[in-house]
């Protein structure tokens, strides 16, 4: 009798990248275009499977769906459990979508070790899908850390400058130190409860002092990933040195792991500690929003500008998560998804510029609207999406986050809203410097508008951002029950 | 039909924008013009149905955001306020479209220009037809985007770039206020729909909430936040600096966006929220004070500007001040009436100014114009009509609204309803009338009548614009003459039921009956003042009186006002540069690149080798050193054992001791 458990779309989604990976291993590295095709097809198939996840998803329940359990060490009460709910489903979709885009983006810009590069990306995709679907604390930790390995390699090997080693090192150091504390907390939890299964842990009440200690340990790991000030300085470095696809996946998904961790673990496991630490989070977020925005105003490296603006946007996300109400949390999830699309798209735009002119210093660019009108239109759209233009996805996210925060603290919201002004200032400044003004022909004399491949990469992102902004209900309605049950854990 | 009013401009924008390459200049122009004219005809129909017949229309298109109790939908609301705005917007927009097809004839990016104009029209229509605050915010930001793109239309010019960024960022400060207003509204009413808010307002009028430790009345807080939004969009004092700079854009843009429609969005917002503002006297007083100050300062600034378009821009700013303070004295319908009238004569002024600039080879400085009356007689007469209407000359359009506003302020001064804010508005409003007349006619004299300072080449080449450009001008000229007369009784006639439920004026705030019984000499006052202004302008220009130029005080005043009261410099020096420097020196260099980095990875990488070096030095290889450590260890061990017996806590003390030793 055939075991039909494998037809579970979640398992199919998780395993497809691995299958692609194995195929890639046996292809000789000299057949570069074949390698690319295999990787692209794998990513596309994975994306299709993840779309099936969305289609089959039942939005009227808060239970975990498509769940499957495998024995690992039954004697030690350790299992491997998979399952998704409304919170994690969209992150999986985002992962699978962005992987396709990453592979497409590096179609011709990566010049060496292509097979290994693609292997890294498929591995990364596999790890990320696991991170978002695994329902076991220990496994979550394992995958959360494993993501570091391919990412470290991507930054360190295919980065653009000599400085990439330092950036990769910094990236590694920060995330590792953060998560070591989490490991200690995890072991303590395991020895106390006797299980690392998430659904069991949710029904376990820790004492308040233990909650606070565990929360801090988890926080150190998630805050580095999100990143919150003062653990954020690895982000601009890593972004600036990573190849375009690396930046896309870093900004698009890796940052969301922190927010996802807060939602999945910190809030339901340690509700009292969450309420206890809310003022700390709010303070750090406000500092992140204002300081990062101000810093962004004075950056000259294009990628660093986007990176710092990411820090500022993630400040909104943490405010939303810790406002601990329906509007705030759904807003922050939506803002994370939206940021995954918008900042990825901006990094793609910058990658397009970098591919053509091999520099990321703002000073050399000016007046590109005259020679790259299509690029200009896309860049304009993404810039306005970045500053939270109504009708784009970030607006919905920011609005919901601010509504959620306003219920708790008016002054907090006031200062967070100042971030909107500064956001407009740096976004429009960046756009204006690149696209408008006179053409600096003393630096560049050859120009080329975006190619057909780049057009088809950017167009879906544009449409998605618009869809999320104009009809966000198709996203929000899937998460209502999950978020409500998450809030229920608090009270 | 109602949906088509909105969709047609969007369609036009998409066609002209994305397919402009294939349509060519003519095609793009015709398609966009056709779209907006159809939209205008439908708006007129809507005006007939909703405004004149009183059939309000509500369209629910689809849900938008639904989270918990927050339910926002895409829906359109057509009541008399909306349809009035619709007519104003679409009429001015179609005339400007017609005008700019010929005005921008030789620009290679005409399709793009038309697309931007259409986009603007679309967002403006969204703004006025929205039935909830958030959807209105879409239009609000959208017109900001369109304004940015249109100011920046000639994007290779640095000045255009700067003004566009300035307009967007300053507007964004207003948007910040508006978005806080939305949040507060939702907090108090748990809804953002207009009708829900307005019907609940009387019930929560004494509700107060805690804002940063202060207890503030909820309605007042909402009102103040909305007004911050209006300050930004409607260029009121404090955030008005973007409007004169926005004149860097092409002239049709100035006419459409920065005179007739977009800048009135703030006023529209306040009028729309009349059922809420009426319950907060504090907000009304703030409106009076800001509005009258703006009217006065802007009118004064207009007097000493030398750029043709900037004069008109300051005049716009000043007229917006009138609209705002007439909202403050609870005369929302008069404010709306003035808004509609102002749209006609201000668009006329700008478009005629465009003709002049077009004729004089893009010269904008009035000091280098003159004598154009001989070459541009039609433009001159149209400009004269516009100026008279602006100055409030009797029986022209401006007269009916502006005079009535001033009469209403007189009431607060003269009757037993005396309140200090009203008289403030009265004084400043009347003084501004004088300045308005003065700068309008200074403009006429400098541009058309005085002997010319332009070069012979330019003057000889100057000619009247073609019929396509004149047609909108003439239509607007007719509007500037007749619109006020025709619609006065409809909009502000005593006991008119045109506004239905769109505007609420509390009975104890209404002064309309008193205005009918005002002393006749007072009713003449604005006319006398404006005539004085005209006479003075004539006197200074015709007699060529140079004597006043040598007066020191006068020259200082001139200097101060010509430099726009130093608003820009103050803002730059006290806000912009400190913030930018903070961003670089403090948050980037000191914190990110200094403190955090040193405490973080770089500190660690420096510390670990140092420690390793220190520890490796302990391995010196000399027996005496090892012996010393051995003895030390034994001693400590003994101390611990004894200490453990005597004092319980010594272990910890020892631990600290070791720690200190190593560090």
From TrEMBL, chain A:
It comes from the Eukaryota. Keywords: Electron transport, Membrane, Mitochondrion, NAD, Respiratory chain, Transmembrane, Transmembrane helix, Transport, Ubiquinone. It is a multi-pass membrane protein. It catalyses: a ubiquinone + NADH + 5 H(+)(in) = a ubiquinol + NAD(+) + 4 H(+)(out). Residues 136-420 form the NADH:quinone oxidoreductase/Mrp antiporter transmembrane domain. The chain crosses the membrane at residues 6-27, 34-57, 77-105, 112-132, 138-159, 171-192, 212-235, 242-263, 275-294, 306-327, 333-354, 374-391, 411-434, 455-476. GO terms for cellular component: mitochondrial membrane. One of its GO terms (biological process) is electron transport coupled proton transport. GO terms for molecular function: NADH dehydrogenase (ubiquinone) activity; NADH dehydrogenase activity; ubiquinone binding. It is found in: Membrane; Mitochondrion membrane. Its EC number is 7.1.1.2. Core subunit of the mitochondrial membrane respiratory chain NADH dehydrogenase (Complex I) that is believed to belong to the minimal assembly required for catalysis. Complex I functions in the transfer of electrons from NADH to the respiratory chain. The immediate electron acceptor for the enzyme is believed to be ubiquinone. Belongs to the complex I subunit 4 family. This is NADH-ubiquinone oxidoreductase chain 4. It comes from Gracilaria chouae. The lineage of its organism: Eukaryota, Rhodophyta, Florideophyceae, Rhodymeniophycidae, Gracilariales.
From TrEMBL, chain B:
GO terms for cellular component: mitochondrial inner membrane. InterPro entries: NADH_DH_su5_C, NADHpl_OxRdtase_5_subgr, ND/Mrp_TM, NU5C-like, Proton_antipo_N. It is a multi-pass membrane protein. Residues 130-407 form the NADH:quinone oxidoreductase/Mrp antiporter transmembrane domain. It holds the Pfam family NADH5_C. GO terms for biological process: ATP synthesis coupled electron transport; electron transport coupled proton transport. Gene3D superfamilies: 1.20.5.2700. Belongs to the complex I subunit 5 family. This is NADH-ubiquinone oxidoreductase chain 5. It comes from Gracilariopsis chorda.
């Amino acid at each position: 009798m055939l075991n039909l458990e494998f037809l579970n779309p979640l398992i199919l989604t998780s395993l497809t990248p691995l299958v692609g990976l194995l195929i890639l291993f046996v292809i000789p590295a000299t057949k570069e275009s074949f390698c690319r095709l295999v990787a692209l097809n794998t990513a596309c198939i994975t994306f299709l499977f993840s779309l099936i996840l969305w289609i089959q998803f039942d939005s009227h329940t808060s239970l975990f769906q498509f769940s499957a359990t495998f024995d690992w060490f039954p004697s030690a009460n350790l299992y491997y459990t998979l399952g998704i709910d409304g919170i994690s489903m969209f992150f999986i979709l985002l992962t699978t979508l962005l992987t396709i885009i990453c592979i497409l983006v590096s179609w011709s810009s990566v010049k060496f070790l292509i097979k290994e590069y693609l292997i890294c990306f498929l591995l990364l995709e596999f790890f990320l899908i696991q991170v978002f679907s695994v329902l076991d604390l220990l496994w979550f930790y394992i995958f959360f850390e494993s993501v570091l390995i391919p990412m470290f390699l991507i930054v360190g090997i295919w980065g653009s400058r000599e400085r990439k080693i330092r950036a990769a090192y910094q990236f590694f150091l920060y995330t590792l130190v953060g998560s070591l504390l989490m490991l200690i907390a995890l072991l303590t939890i395991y020895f106390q409860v006797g299980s690392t299964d998430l659904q069991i842990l949710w029904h376990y009440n820790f004492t308040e002092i233990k909650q606070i200690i565990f929360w801090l340990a988890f926080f150190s790991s998630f805050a580095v990933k999100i990143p919150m000030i003062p653990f954020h300085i690895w982000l601009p470095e890593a972004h600036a040195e990573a190849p375009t696809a690396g930046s896309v996946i870093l900004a698009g998904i890796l940052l969301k792991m922190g927010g996802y961790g807060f939602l999945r673990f910190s809030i339901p496991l340690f509700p009292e500690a969450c309420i206890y630490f809310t003022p700390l989070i709010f303070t750090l977020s406000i500092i992140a929003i204002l300081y990062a925005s101000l810093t962004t105003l004075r950056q000259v490296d294009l990628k660093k500008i986007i990176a710092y603006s990411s820090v500022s946007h993630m400040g909104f996300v943490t405010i939303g998560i810790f406002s601990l109400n329906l509007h705030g949390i759904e807003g922050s999830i939506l803002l994370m998804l939206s940021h995954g699309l918008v900042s990825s798209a901006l990094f793609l735009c910058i990658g397009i510029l970098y591919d053509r002119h091999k520099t990321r210093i703002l000073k050399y660019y000016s007046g590109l609207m005259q020679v790259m009108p299509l690029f200009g239109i896309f860049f304009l759209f993404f810039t306005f999406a970045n500053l939270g233009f109504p009708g784009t996805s970030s607006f919905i996210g920011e609005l919901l986050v601010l509504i959620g925060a306003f219920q708790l603290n008016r002054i907090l919201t006031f200062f967070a809203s100042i971030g909107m002004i500064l956001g407009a200032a740096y976004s429009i400044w960046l756009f204006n410097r690149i696209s408008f003004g006179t053409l600096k022909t003393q630096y560049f004399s050859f120009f080329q508008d975006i190619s057909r491949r780049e057009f088809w990469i950017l167009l879906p992102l544009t449409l998605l951002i618009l869809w999320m902004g104009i009809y966000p209900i198709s996203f929000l309605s899937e998460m209502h029950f999950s978020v409500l049950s998450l809030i229920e854990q608090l009270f | 039909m109602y949906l088509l009013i909105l969709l047609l401009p969007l369609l036009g924008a998409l066609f002209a924008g994305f397919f402009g390459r294939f349509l060519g200049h003519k095609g793009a122009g015709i398609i966009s013009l056709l779209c907006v004219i159809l939209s205008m005809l439908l708006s007129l129909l809507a005006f007939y149905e909703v405004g004149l017949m009183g059939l309000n229309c509500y369209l629910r298109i689809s849900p938008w955001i639904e989270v918990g109790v927050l339910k926002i939908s895409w829906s359109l609301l057509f009541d008399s306020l909306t349809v009035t705005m619709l007519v104003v917007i679409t009429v001015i927009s179609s005339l400007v479209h017609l005008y700019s097809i010929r005005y921008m004839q030789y620009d290679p990016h005409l399709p793009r220009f038309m697309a931007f104009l259409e986009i603007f029209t679309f967002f403006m229509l969204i703004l006025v037809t929205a039935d909830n605050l958030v959807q209105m915010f879409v239009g609000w930001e959208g017109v900001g985007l369109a304004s940015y793109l249109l100011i920046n239309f000639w994007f290779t010019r640095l000045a255009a770039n700067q003004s566009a960024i300035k307009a967007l960022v300053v507007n964004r400060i207003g948007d910040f206020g508006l978005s806080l207003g939305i949040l507060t509204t939702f907090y108090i009413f748990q809804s953002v729909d207009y009708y829900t808010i307005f019907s609940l307002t009387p019930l929560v009028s004494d509700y107060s909430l805690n804002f940063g430790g202060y207890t503030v009345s909820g309605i007042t807080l909402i009102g103040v936040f909305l007004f911050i939004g209006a300050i930004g969009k409607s260029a009121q004092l404090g955030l008005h600096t973007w409007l004169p700079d926005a004149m860097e854009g092409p002239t049709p843009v100035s006419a459409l966006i920065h005179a007739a429609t977009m800048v009135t969005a703030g006023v529209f917002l306040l009028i729309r929220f009349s059922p809420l503002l009426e319950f907060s006297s504090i907000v009304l007083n703030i409106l009076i004070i800001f509005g009258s100050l703006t009217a006065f300062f802007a009118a004064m600034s207009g007097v000493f500007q030398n750029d043709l378009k900037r004069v008109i821009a300051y005049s716009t700013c000043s007229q917006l001040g009138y609209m705002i303070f007439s909202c403050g004295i609870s005369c929302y319908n008069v404010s709306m009436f003035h808004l509609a009238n102002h749209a006609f004569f201000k668009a006329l002024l700008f478009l005629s100014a465009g003709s002049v600039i077009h004729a004089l080879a893009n010269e904008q400085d009035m000091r280098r114009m003159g004598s154009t009356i001989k070459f541009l007689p039609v433009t001159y007469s149209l400009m004269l009509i516009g100026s008279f209407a602006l100055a409030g000359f009797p029986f022209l359009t401006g007269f009916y609204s502006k005079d009535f506003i001033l009469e209403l302020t007189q009431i607060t001064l003269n009757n037993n309803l005396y309140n200090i804010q009203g008289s403030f508005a009265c004084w400043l409003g009347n003084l501004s009338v004088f300045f308005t007349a003065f700068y309008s006619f200074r403009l006429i004299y400098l541009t058309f009548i005085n002997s010319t300072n332009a070069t012979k080449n330019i003057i000889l080449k100057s000619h009247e614009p073609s019929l396509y450009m004149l047609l909108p001008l003439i239509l607007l000229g007719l509007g500037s003459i007749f619109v006020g007369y025709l619609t006065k009784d409809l909009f502000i006639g005593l006991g008119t039921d045109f506004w239905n439920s769109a505007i609420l004026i509390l009975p104890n705030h209404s002064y309309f009956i008193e205005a009918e019984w005002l002393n006749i000499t007072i009713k003449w006052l604005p006319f006398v003042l404006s005539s004085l202004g005209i006479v003075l302008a004539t006197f200074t220009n015709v007699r060529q009186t140079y004597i006043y130029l040598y007066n020191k005080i006068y020259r200082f005043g001139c200097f101060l006002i010509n430099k726009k009261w130093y608003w820009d410099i103050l803002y730059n020096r006290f806000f912009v540069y400190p913030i930018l420097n903070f961003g670089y020196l403090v948050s980037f260099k000191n914190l990110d690149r200094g403190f955090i980095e040193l405490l973080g990875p770089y500190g660690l990488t420096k510390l670990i080798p140092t420690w390793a070096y220190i520890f490796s030095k302990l391995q010196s290889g000399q027996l005496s050193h090892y012996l010393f450590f051995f003895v030390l260890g034994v001693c400590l061990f003994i101390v611990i054992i004894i200490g453990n017996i005597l004092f319980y806590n010594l272990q910890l003390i020892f631990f600290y001791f070791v720690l200190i030793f190593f560090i």
